[in-house]
Design a protein that fits this description.
This protein is mostly helical. It has twelve helices and no strands.
Length: about 200
């Protein structure tokens, strides 16, 4: 199901790569944009790939603490590929999606399915991967987050074979779990569609 959403974003790739985020930076609102726009906007602005952007230079250009926090997180996790293997890197990224700028780095918290799904959509597009290649620890962290909110199955959009191997099949096969799964999948579909429409609207 994520493939269809990725295909929609791919239609906008040229505009995304060339995106101008200077107005958002001037207004201290960079952090309110999709991480996709932040990532490519910063690359365009600095004329560099994330790994080549000096984190210290962000202090000179960005106007708000939220912008600095968001940009530093995005640049650091995508320059090292840590988002696939580190629960702390993924948690930092998820905090941005959840608009949580108070949870300190190195501290974990649970996240809702909608936030996880948007994060994964952004990760797949930015990295160019079309498969979820999270480490076992990361998959366990994601399942634990969902469990905290009463969901024993991830929404269909992010349910991978690696996750299925870690799920207690007894719980997952229950009628209550199936009902929550359907509801969460529907809600996630709406959230992802809205995220893509927001991208499209910004680029118009």
């Amino acid at each position: 199901m994520l493939d269809e959403h990725i295909a929609e974003i791919e239609k906008m790739r040229h505009e995304i790569v060339e995106v101008d985020v200077s107005a958002s930076i001037r207004d201290g609102k960079l952090h309110t944009l999709s991480p996709i726009l932040q990532f490519y906007g910063l690359c365009k602005m600095f004329g560099s790939l994330p790994g080549d952007i000096e984190l210290e230079s962000l202090d000179l250009y960005l106007k708000s603490e939220e912008d600095i926090s968001s940009a530093m997180t995005i640049i650091s996790i995508f320059s090292r590929g840590a988002v696939w293997t580190s629960i702390y890197a993924l948690s930092s990224f998820l905090c941005l999606i959840a608009e949580d700028y108070t949870t300190p780095n190195g501290k974990l918290r649970p996240f809702k399915a909608e936030d996880i799904s948007i994060a994964i959509l952004c990760i797949l597009f930015i990295t160019g991967s079309r498969k979820l290649i999270f480490s076992e620890n990361v998959n366990r962290f994601l399942l634990s987050s969902l469990s905290y909110y009463g969901e024993t199955l991830p929404p269909a959009q992010i349910l991978s074979s690696d996750m299925m191997r870690l799920i207690d099949s007894t719980d997952a096969n229950g009628e209550k779990s199936k009902s929550i799964f359907r509801d969460t999948t529907t809600l996630t579909e709406e959230v992802l569609s809205t995220h893509i429409e927001d991208l499209r609207e910004f680029l118009r």
